[in-house]
Specification:
It contains 23 helices and 25 strands. The chain has a six-stranded mixed beta sheet with strand order 5-4-16-15-14-6, with helices on one face. A six-stranded mixed beta sheet has the order 21-23-22-25-20-24. Strand 4 and strand 5 form a beta hairpin. Helix 4 runs parallel beside helix 18 and helix 5 packs parallel to helix 13.
């Protein structure tokens, strides 16, 4: 397929290792070394040993990336739909014709309903700054509907920043210097393997204990010294009990809090009722488990709390993050190398993205539509549409909403509208591409230049173009530039620049090295010094104080809702201090189970689900059920079962597993809808109601019924 001469490798005979970056939606942004053969094909992909966070280790799915790049079903030519939507009837067309048709459709949509009828829709299928975010420049230039990216980070980032006042933390490499690593609400064995690299190093070199807090006995849990398996949506109750014990038993660092926290006296008074017995009744843990966990972190000064995304994808997820984060402040863990609480380093990477994204000509009066509510938007929900006109045209890059978005039945209904025009730029014929009008083939990361930043670590990294793409495949930037020409906005600032020019304009104003220097340096370590990283010069608020009492309706967040939207969800119900708040979907008589849709080891959201090895290793879509629950319902391993709630129902095969809790079901991985028994995936069951206070999708927060399928 791709056999062109590789970049800078003319006249070589054997493979040459070239540096790049994994582009996928993972906090690790692993530094890679890719073998490039003389015939232009990539070979072995491995982690860069010289990068001190990647440390030579990457996940297996990226290590076999050649399988994805040279997949026989990769999209290679533009296609136009011939038959009904979803029929699979296509004809090949030229790039010129495809782009002309997209531009014409957008012009017609704007003429009929105004510029907001077009919704450029994208997300993190690539984390490259240029290829991901250039779509925003076209949006702003044309005054198309705004995109509120809510599905992934909002609850986690908001909960963290409500406490610290900044989205940064201790050097994540310090896990290797810890005496106790608490991995809370994430499954890094499956989702960000480098966390385990540094945690296991701490255990080998220092005898550190690894504690894992999660809702099932995950692959990461199997690496733990201490397992804390609690009911979904009860993390804040556990955190409160830990802090209660810290105050009760003298583990709380009162001198530290007096200097660095807003109201430790009020917090202590609030927590007096949050006993281990209280928390045990909520979390399903025993009092002894809670006491032992509190004693371990309370007596271990160098405790590193590695806080993930998974436990925040509940309707009380923002509060849960803030509560877990607060433990490090009560204990004073921030004072020690190898201690503190880390979630994301997004604030470190100062990039000038004004030209890239066209922010100078953004119009604040243009409506912002919620990414997670695409089903409601496309089916005409007045609230989701902000009480304005319909969306009748979409340009989709870097995401697969027909598979990953909540309320899948609404999503499908919306995409199947006869009056909706959809253009999708993709690598494969995804669930979303299958219902498009025009499908465009996209380059993969080794086939274009881009710049990356690593939220889960501390580097800005260059991903240079290593091989020529197939002759009929184009970059995201190319599509945006060509549409800008056809739509008459290519004269706006930021258009007409190459990837390399965009990279330089992002980097150089902040004193970072430019593209040419990074070809040699490969990455920039952005981690500040110990005192700043650990907030020993004060937290990110003007008074330098950590907030035990956040202002939920007005406080900071890296992705705060626009003023036109204000706080979302039941924000008035959020507690004054850290506390359990049951705005989650609690199990009831009609829905006795809680369902979590956890990541699979061999998929990454919906990416890699197309590769043969990943699919073979995952087997088939199934749901994990505890043996006691299965026996009560006369379900045996491999039976077909049906899960349902008010949003719909899906059929899956049962997997009887001791690793699931009683009353909790686990469905791992986002399989293509077509891999399911009825052509509908697990997100039929997930909701799109926004999480308080600034939105987000509670995809792990679902109550369901379960029955053996007798059809």
């Amino acid at each position: 397929m791709n056999v062109a001469t590789p970049i800078s490798l003319k006249n070589t005979t054997g493979p040459v290792a070239k540096a790049t970056v994994c582009p996928h939606d993972c906090p690790s942004a692993c530094a890679l070394e890719v073998d490039i053969a003389a015939d232009g094909r990539i070979g072995r992909v491995r982690g860069a040993n010289a990068n001190t966070y990647t440390a030579g280790v990457i996940c297996a799915k990226v290590a076999r990336y050649a399988e994805r790049l040279y997949h026989p079903e990769r999209l290679l030519v533009p296609k136009r739909r011939k038959g009904a939507k979803g029929s699979g009837d296509w004809q090949e067309i030229s790039w010129e014709a495809a782009l002309d048709e997209i531009a014409d459709a957008f012009v017609r949509a704007e003429a009929a309903h105004g510029s907001e009828a077009i919704w450029p829709y994208f997300y993190a299928g690539t984390m490259g700054q240029v290829q991901r975010d250039s779509i925003e420049r076209l949006r702003h230039a044309k005054r198309y509907s705004g995109f509120f990216g809510s599905i992934c980070t909002n609850m986690a980032w908001t909960g963290y920043v409500m406490g610290t006042g900044a989205l940064r933390g201790p050097d994540p490499r310090e896990m290797a210097k810890s005496d106790c690593v608490v991995i809370w609400g994430t499954n890094p064995v499956a989702t960000q393997v480098n966390v385990m690299t540094h945690a296991i190093r701490a255990r080998k070199e220092r005898g550190a204990k690894i504690v894992v807090v999660d809702v099932y006995d995950s692959p990461t849990m199997k690496q733990a010294d201490v397992k804390i398996i609690l009911k979904p949506g009860t993390d804040a109750a556990l955190a409160c009990a830990i802090m209660h014990i810290a105050f009760r038993d003298g583990y709380a660092d009162r001198d530290y809090m007096a200097k660095f926290a807003d109201d430790p006296t009020g917090l202590e008074a609030h927590l007096r009722a949050k006993t281990p017995e209280w928390a045990a009744g909520i979390t399903g843990l025993s009092v002894d488990e809670i006491e032992a966990f509190a004693r371990l972190v309370g007596t271990t000064k160098k405790t590193f709390f590695r806080l993930g995304y998974g436990f925040t994808r509940q309707r009380n997820g923002t509060v849960a993050m803030h509560a877990a984060l607060s433990i490090a402040t009560v204990l004073g863990s921030w004072q020690y190398e190898g201690g503190g609480a880390f979630h994301n380093n997004g604030e470190l990477f100062k990039l000038d993205k004004r030209e890239l994204m066209g922010t100078a000509y953004a119009d604040p009066d243009i409506r912002m539509l919620d990414q997670s509510q695409i089903g409601r938007v496309l089916t005409g929900d007045a609230v989701a549409l902000r009480h304005r006109g319909p969306v009748t045209a979409l340009l989709i890059q870097n995401t697969n909403p027909m598979n990953v978005a909540p309320e899948q039945r609404l999503v499908r209904q919306g995409f199947m509208r006869d009056d909706l025009f959809t253009a999708v730029h993709e690598h494969f014929m995804t669930d979303t591409a299958q219902v498009a009008d025009i499908v465009l083939p996209a380059t993969m990361f080794v086939e274009h230049d881009d710049l990356y930043r690593a939220g889960g670590q501390n580097h800005i990294l260059l991903g240079p173009k290593l091989v020529e793409p197939p002759a009929t495949v184009r970059t995201n930037l190319f599509v945006i530039e060509e549409l800008a020409k056809r739509l008459g906005v290519d004269h706006y600032p930021g258009f007409g620049l190459t990837e390399r020019e965009h990279i330089d304009r992002m980097l150089l104003p902040h004193g970072w090295p430019g593209y040419e220097q990074l070809l040699t340096d490969k990455w920039v370590d952005c981690q500040p010094g110990f005192e700043e990283s650990h907030y020993l010069n004060g937290f990110g608020y003007p008074d330098g104080k950590f907030r035990f009492r956040p202002d939920w309706a007005n406080g900071p967040s890296p992705n705060k809702t626009p003023a036109s939207l204000g706080p979302l969800g039941p924000h008035a119900e959020l507690p004054l201090f850290p506390d359990q708040v049951d705005v989650i979907e609690l199990a009831d008589a009609q829905h006795p189970f809680r369902l979590a849709t956890s990541p699979a080891r061999n998929f990454l959201n919906s990416s890699f689900a197309e590769t043969k090895t990943s699919r073979e290793k995952e087997g088939r879509p199934d749901v994990m059920i505890h043996p006691d629950d299965a026996a009560r319902l006369s379900i045996i391993d491999g039976d077909i079962v049906r899960l349902g709630n008010q949003r719909g129902s899906v059929r899956l095969h049962a997997r009887i597993a001791e690793s699931a809790r009683r009353g909790v079901l686990i469905a791992e991985g986002l399989w293509p809808n077509t891999a399911h028994l009825d052509g509908e995936g697990i997100n039929v069951l997930t909701g799109a109601d926004p999480v308080a206070p600034y939105g987000g999708a509670a995809v792990h927060d679902n109550r369901v019924w379960l029955e053996k399928d007798l059809s």
